[in-house]
């Protein structure tokens, strides 16, 4: 029996060290853990148990002292292995992955070198940034970390389009693939999705899902667009490593369930980012982070990694790589063989702007690809060869088919844009009168061009508020001009959509408590990228006791702030009432610096409007109509109230009456005397002498 025991123990302790067999099935740990079971759980406890079983099979019994020794050995070995795995997990190492991928400890230094090399080949011209990013990922392996705290907290700073997202994804994927960290994936949470009151509950659910998804890194971006309630939770997350929950929750069947006041097991009051890399990605400077989150937030950051402006050499290298990718795509998908020279590289590199970043290169090659795709579709091209040429700062492809040299290139976006602007300006010029209003609308383009030019040159660009108030009587063209403004702002590049969403109080104010805010938010969402036009906006405020109207105004002000880059609000109404309306909310007047007065039309302008309406309906106005119409409009403006007379509406109503009278007249007239297009003074109710019929004047 002694020889059997000696041989078993010798097999367990070879060379003075406890031996393990990685091909054994892991034993369930004593403590419940959310981490996946790994091969590191194969411990001396299993070996000891095997020893006991082997001895038992021999039919002999161990002495009581030997049994106690083996049991003690089992407990100590299990504790040692659990402690080892806990420390490895603290350092971000997925122990199951390490064993599965390598069967041996990972060479960490080599793994980080590989990750740096892969990121460097993907993100060009950002060497210092990549070095700092690798230090952030390496930090927990050197300094250690706690189970309940993030592995590292870092801010990723730098301009749009400088490779921040690509670098984060690449490094995470490389280290995860090599088994250094838990997963090759990172979860990106767009905080701009949580921009309304009550969004913190949605944020909690999304954050919980990201934490439980098994990703190695959590990346939060667009913090400047989220609601203040969510912003405070983000601040706590980076300071404390966890976020306080807005109400009582419990984890049930892998889900986070709000439980209210119920008493249930497993209730949680915070969500932890323990064991995760935590990044805040922003294009704002560090000083803005202090303003938003406070100095303790910045002090809690372990690292700040910032991209820098590209050098010309880097831009050309990025452009060359994009063109090489284009060559591969068109060869594979379109069977078109392309070549390019340094002139094409330089032209594409020159398309870079600080505002667009490296995305400008992708846009340029995508336009070429789409142009070639259209050529393939419309001309049924077979395999052809072509060359990418540069001309007038534009890329073109020249190829030969059936002996004929053909050229295809991206559409001249500037020409398309200029044509759209010219069309809107022409439409604006057709509006009668309102010259001060027209001058203001056209001045918007000048300011936008200068600010865009400053932005492209890397200078500080101001984004002035373009929200407007149109004041004036009904029928003075406010709605018509608002429609033109929406299309004009899209044409010059201020807005992406250019749609006009016209609403009134009935569309924004609900009928019961809790109904108004969702209605107003729905209207705002439908207008994103365009203009939200609120006619008779003063009706939203009916005094301090109108809680529903005040709620709509508060929601509107908040929406304007949250979507200041992709929403323009135009309010319309009477001058006196709109002045009172601006006192309903302290933030209203400051958000509407542009108050544009629409004057009443003169009698001569109303005559011009009448002629325009007549032409639009396919009729002709007899010259004899001019004088009586002019006298009619003068009399109406002297005797009537322009607030109810309708200005342009009065002219439209007069024309519609004349069209009906013209139809009646022609029905009664002989066939040879009918003129179905001519409107006569009598159709407007005027005698031939110019005196109105029926005492209408």
Task: Explain what this protein looks like in three dimensions.
The protein is α/β, with parallel strands linked by helices and 697 residues long. A 5-stranded parallel beta sheet has the order 4-5-9-3-10, with helices on both faces. It has a 5-stranded parallel beta sheet with strand order 16-17-18-15-19. A hairpin with a 2-residue loop joins strand 1 and strand 2. Residues 1-5, 12-45, 58-63, 87-104 and 689-697 have low confidence and may be disordered.
Topology, element by element:
Blueprint: H1 2-12, E1 13-14, E2 17-18, H2 44-57, H3 64-90, H4 95-102, H5 108-122, H6 127-143, E3 152-157, H7 164-177, E4 186-190, H8 200-212, E5 217-221, H9 228-240, E6 242-252, E7 255-258, E8 267-272, E9 277-282, H10 286-293, H11 295-300, E10 303-306, H12 312-334, E11 336-340, H13 342-350, H14 359-379, E12 384-391, E13 394-401, E14 404-409, H15 413-429, H16 435-456, E15 468-472, H17 478-492, E16 500-503, H18 505-508, H19 516-527, E17 531-534, H20 547-562, E18 568-573, H21 575-581, H22 588-591, E19 594-598, H23 603-616, E20 620-621, H24 626-639, H25 642-645, H26 648-668, E21 678-679
Parallel strand pairs: 3-9, 3-10, 4-5, 5-9, 11-12, 15-18, 15-19, 16-17, 17-18, 20-21
Antiparallel strand pairs: 1-2, 6-7, 6-8, 12-13, 13-14
Helix pairs in contact: 1-2, 2-3, 5-6, 5-7, 12-13, 12-14, 15-17, 19-20, 23-24, 23-26
């Amino acid at each position: 029996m002694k020889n059997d025991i000696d041989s078993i123990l010798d097999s367990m302790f070879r060379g003075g060290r406890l031996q393990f067999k990685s091909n054994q099935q892991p034993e369930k740990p004593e403590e419940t853990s959310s981490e996946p079971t790994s091969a590191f759980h194969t411990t001396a406890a299993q070996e000891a148990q095997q020893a006991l079983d082997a001895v038992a099979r021999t039919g002999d019994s161990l002495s009581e002292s030997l049994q106690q020794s083996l049991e003690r050995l089992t407990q100590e070995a299990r504790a040692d292995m659990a402690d080892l795995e806990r420390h490895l997990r603290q350092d971000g190492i997925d122990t199951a992955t390490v064993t599965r991928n390598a069967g041996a400890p990972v060479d960490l230094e080599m793994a980080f070198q590989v990750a740096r090399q892969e990121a460097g080949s993907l993100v060009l011209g950002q060497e210092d940034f990549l070095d700092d990013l690798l230090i952030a990922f390496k930090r927990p392996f050197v300094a250690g970390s706690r189970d309940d705290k993030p592995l590292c907290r870092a801010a990723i700073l730098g301009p749009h389009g400088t490779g921040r997202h690509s670098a984060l994804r690449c490094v995470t994927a490389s280290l995860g693939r090599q088994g250094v960290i838990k997963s090759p994936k990172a979860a990106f949470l767009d905080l701009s999705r949580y921009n309304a009151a009550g969004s913190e509950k949605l944020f909690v659910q999304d954050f919980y899902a990201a934490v439980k998804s098994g990703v190695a890194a959590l990346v939060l971006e667009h913090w400047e667009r989220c609601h203040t309630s969510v912003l405070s939770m983000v601040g706590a997350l980076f300071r404390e490593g966890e976020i306080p929950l807005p109400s009582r929750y419990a984890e049930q069947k892998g889900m986070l369930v709000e439980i209210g006041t119920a008493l249930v097991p497993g209730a949680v009051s915070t969500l932890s980012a323990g064991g995760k890399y935590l990044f805040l990605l922003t294009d704002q400077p560090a000083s803005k982070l202090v303003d938003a989150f406070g100095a303790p937030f910045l002090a809690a950051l372990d690292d700040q990694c910032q991209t820098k402006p590209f050098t010309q050499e880097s831009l050309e290298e990025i452009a060359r790589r994009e063109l090489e990718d284009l060559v591969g795509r068109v060869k594979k998908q379109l069977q078109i063989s392309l070549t390019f020279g340094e002139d094409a590289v330089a032209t594409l590199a020159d398309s870079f702007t600080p505002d667009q970043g490296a995305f400008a290169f992708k846009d340029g090659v995508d336009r070429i690809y789409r142009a070639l795709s259209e050529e393939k579709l419309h001309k049924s091209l077979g395999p052809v060869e072509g060359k990418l040429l540069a001309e007038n700062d534009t890329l073109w492809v020249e190829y030969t088919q059936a002996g004929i040299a053909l050229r295809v290139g991206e559409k001249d976006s500037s020409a398309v844009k200029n044509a759209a602007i010219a069309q809107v300006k022409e439409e604006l010029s057709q509006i009668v009168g309102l010259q001060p209003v027209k001058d203001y609308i056209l001045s918007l383009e000048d300011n936008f061009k200068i600010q865009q030019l400053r932005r492209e040159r890397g200078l500080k660009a101001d984004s002035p508020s373009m929200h407007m108030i149109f004041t004036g009587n009904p029928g003075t063209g406010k709605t018509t001009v608002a429609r033109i403004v929406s299309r004009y702002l899209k044409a010059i590049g201020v807005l992406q959509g250019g749609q006009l969403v016209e609403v009134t109080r009935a569309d924004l104010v609900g009928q019961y408590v809790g109904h108004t805010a969702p209605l107003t938010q729905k209207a705002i969402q439908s207008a994103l990228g365009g203009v939200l036009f609120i006619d008779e906006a003063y009706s939203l405020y009916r005094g301090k006791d109108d809680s529903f109207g005040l709620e709509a105004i508060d929601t509107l002000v908040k929406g304007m702030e949250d979507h200041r880059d992709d929403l323009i609000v135009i309010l319309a109404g009477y001058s006196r009432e709109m002045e009172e309306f601006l006192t309903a909310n302290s933030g209203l007047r400051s958000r509407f610096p542009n108050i544009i007065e629409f004057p009443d039309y003169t009698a001569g302008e109303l005559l011009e409007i009448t002629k325009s309406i007549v032409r639009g309906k396919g009729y002709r106005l007899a010259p004899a109509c001019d004088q009586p119409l002019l006298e009619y409009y003068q009399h109406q403006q002297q005797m009537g109230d322009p607030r109810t007379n309708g200005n342009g509406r009065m002219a439209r109503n007069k024309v519609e009456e004349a069209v009906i009278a013209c139809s009646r007249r022609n029905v009664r007239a002989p066939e040879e005397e009918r003129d179905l297009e001519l409107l006569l003074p009598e159709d407007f109710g005027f005698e031939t002498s110019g005196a109105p019929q029926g005492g209408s004047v």
